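From the thread on structure requests for the teaching lab: each student submitted one protein with a one-line request. Submission from student K.M.:

"Model Probable beta-1,4-xylosyltransferase IRX10L from Ziziphus jujuba, tokens only."
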Amino acid sequence: MSTMTSSQKPKITNRSSQMRKKSMMNNKAHHHRPPCTRNQRIASLLLVFAACFFFIRSLDRTFRRPCIPNFTTDLVRTSRLPFTDGGDLSWPQRGYGVHLDLKIYVYEEDEVDGLKELMYGKDGNTITADTCSRGQWATQVKIHKLLQTSKFRTRKKEEADLFFVPTYVKCVHVLGGLDDNQINETYIKVLSQMPYFRLSGGRNHIFVFPSGNGAHFFSSWATYINRSIFLTPEGDRTDKKETSSFNTWKDIIIPGNVDDGMTTTNDLVGVQPLPLSKRKYLANYIGRAQGKVGRLKLIELGKQFPDKLESPDLKFTFPDKLEKMEYFEHLRNAKFCLVPRGESSWTLRFFESFFVECVPVILSDQIELPFQNVIDYTQISIKWPSDHIGPQLLEYLESIPDEAIENMISNGRKVRCLWVYAPESAPCSAMQGIMWELQRKVRQFHHSAETFWLHNGSIMNRNFVKFSDWKPPMPLP
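Reply posted by the TA:
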């Protein structure tokens, strides 16, 4: 191997030498550059965070669905819906979502043999929908009428999420259109003709039971419609029956029907709320005793403290019966409206109190209230143990400053539109709340101890009979 002599090695030119020296100087300068200060590092991080924030905001505005506008209130949290009276209310994202997506089929009165009788009684009766649209049980008619014109109504059974069965049985029973046995027999007759009822054992069918009796108006309810959705103001599990007809899992508590004359106070000057300073009484109970312990206690308490508590012993007949406008006049003349239990735990007086703007004091231990996942009732009412009705109740109410009372009245003003059965065009109504609750009851899948299924999706009972071939009576779930 030949070797290269020193004279033969390539010589480093002056230019190369200069470049190498310059590079070494640059590296040396880099290693001796002073580090960033703490403030400079914080500023850099803030710039990065700001850039990320505005980038994410731009993506969010581009891709997200429109949502309900936001306001602030202590009553409710998350997104809000504006109210016509200047109030606002929250519809929680959790469990509700941002929009309603329902299809409800409403049975026609002539569609099923017998359905008309559950609405108007036997042939020859003069009962009409208008007749049944008044009084505290009118929800059975109002909900039906509002669903008939709803944008969520579908005419196609095959695409329906839910089915509404219109019946006015409370009104029909009170007016003598059907007796108890006829109601029971007619319900069974109607249900046997509904093929879509059998598809889910009735779980996607809706019934309104507007009184304290609940579903017990249909005495065989536990056999035939135990899976169905009940809309009722009554959630009392101490209703003196062997089986409570209310089930939190499937049923919905609704507001009772408040007289239209109270919910549209602008048209009735006489029902306008009074300033607190002009109210004669601390509290009142304007109702009949009906032999109920709590009510009898209030009547006696009113005799003991007539200057603080107005609690007359009213009857069903004159002269100890108040006309509607007289009742409103008395109700608005106290700071607190006492709400004792009646035949059952729910009472219309609770809802009425919001429209004369007195604070309701609930004296019904088992009462269930509507829309509890939306409304914080501690901000708009008081609940007092019914076994402590006495002077201590009045002492407590007297200790509450007017400022706190005004605050509760103001909060109640924001949510009372949920007690009004208004058209769908209204930004806030009882029907709007009910529709949200119904959406939560829609189930893609229906399971119980008596349902079984196979690989092809067939649902059947334990004897391998398909759900679609089931016939009433339905076994308990």
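TA comment: The domain at 260-420 is CATH 3.40.50.2000 (Rossmann fold). The CA atoms of residues 282 and 397 lie 8 Å apart.
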